[in-house]
Specification:
This protein has 13 helices and 13 strands. It is α/β, with parallel strands linked by helices. The structure holds magnesium ion (MG).
Length: 384
């Protein structure tokens, strides 16, 4: 079974309200975009993956740096294609969607969902609603009540106010409102910001330690990205010094970086993402190393519906993944905004869990009409 055709489609969807994510201080998003990667085998099976928001760079990465070297290759030989993706990631941007599409084909060809091909540890996981915006405690409480009524029982709050005292007071108010009826996680987003006007003030070690101890006292389940991405020494120092689990790694890239994060004990919870970090099967190696070091692996999923769906199969295949991240923050980041390219948005079940589709492959159904409507640019390979 050979790779016969590749189609990349850049999509842009208008958000229902302006989005101000904590990871882009001072910036307002009015739309979201992604690049769909569809690969068809010579026996006519089409697999799908999606790149995060990289605009035309994503399209050119596949067209110029990946497609010429993988067309005509055996779909089964994913390990032989991974080095090509790594080279493209060096010169271009996030080519990992190719690996999602190949595993989607392999699952369909074998009649099995991908998570089962990889050992099928679980079919259902508790989700946490992963919020985006820094809002007042009152506004946050209103939003959480609405999500709670939909079935969400766990929430990841954003910390990035002008002072850590304001961040701590904010979480205290949320805990006071909900008591122990919900689980809370917090994400400080100190490892990275997207291009944005700022302010770009980052925590130092003392800030991170102070917040970690306060969050532990508030019963928060983990503190995410408390320090800059490559400050391995102080991340390890913080993880050793605190009782609250420290999480991170969503935008590290490549197996070597994860080896270092794990072996140097930078984090208790590794959060690589099949859209941003490495190929989806390659991340199983990272998860296995985390497992051998008694760490959890809970994938980051904040990109788009296809990326969420791919990470869902990864999560369900792993013995050391106890939660699933569900990006949602209405009114701007709705299920429709995240999953506009899908026939049916992913949803939380009434008991606060998510169930992986049992269809062969990744089980992703694209909405062709909406894709036509929101297409900005297309690149297609010739037939091979
Ligand atoms: Mg994060």
């Amino acid at each position: 079974m050979k790779i016969a055709r590749i189609v990349c489609t850049l999509l842009t969807y208008p958000l229902p309200a302006p989005l101000h994510p904590s990871w882009a201080p001072g910036r307002t998003f009015t739309s979201t975009s992604c690049t769909l990667v569809e690969i068809t085998s010579d026996d006519g099976i089409t697999g799908v993956g999606a790149m995060p928001q990289t605009g035309h760079v994503g399209l050119y990465t596949i067209a110029d740096m990946v497609a010429p070297y993988i067309l005509g290759r055996d779909v089964h030989a994913v390990e032989r294609i991974s080095p090509i993706l790594r080279s493209a990631a060096r010169d271009g941007s996030y080519p990992w969607a190719v690996e999602m599409a190949l595993w989607d084909i392999l699952g369909q060809a074998s009649g099995m969902p991908v998570y089962q091909l990889w050992g099928g540890f679980q079919r259902t996981l508790p989700v946490y609603a992963s919020l985006a915006e820094i809002v007042s405690a009152g506004e946050q409480i209103d939003r959480l009540h609405l999500l709670n009524e939909r079935g969400f029982r766990a929430f990841k709050l954003r910390l990035r106010r002008p002072t850590i005292a304001e961040d701590i007071a904010f979480v205290e108010k949320i805990r006071a409102e909900f008591g122990d009826s919900v689980d809370l996680m917090v994400d400080a987003n100190q490892a990275h910001v997207m291009p944005s006007p700022g302010p770009h003030n980052f925590w130092n070690y003392t800030d991170a330690l102070t917040v970690a101890q306060a969050m532990h006292d508030l019963g928060v389940l983990w503190l995410e990205e408390p320090l800059p991405r490559y400050n391995y020494e102080q991340l390890a120092q913080l993880t050793a010094a605190t009782d609250i689990p420290i999480a991170g790694g969503e935008l590290n890239i490549g197996l070597n970086e994860y080896r270092d994060l794990i072996l140097r004990n930078c984090y208790d919870i590794i959060q690589a993402d099949a859209a941003f970090s490495e190929g989806i099967f390659q991340l199983r190696k990272v998860a296995a190393m985390a497992e051998m070091c008694y760490k959890r692996f809970i994938p980051h999923t904040w990109s788009n519906g296809v990326g969420l769906g791919a990470n869902l199969h990864l999560a369900m295949s792993l013995p050391n993944c106890p939660w699933f991240e569900f990006p949602i923050d209405p009114p701007a980041w709705t299920d429709e905004a995240r999953d506009f390219m899908l026939t049916t948005p992913y949803d939380v079940d009434a008991d606060g869990t998510i169930t992986v589709p049992n269809a062969p492959g990744l089980g992703i159904e694209l909405d062709r009409e909406r894709i036509r409507q929101y297409t900005v640019a297309v690149w297609e390979s010739g037939e091979r």
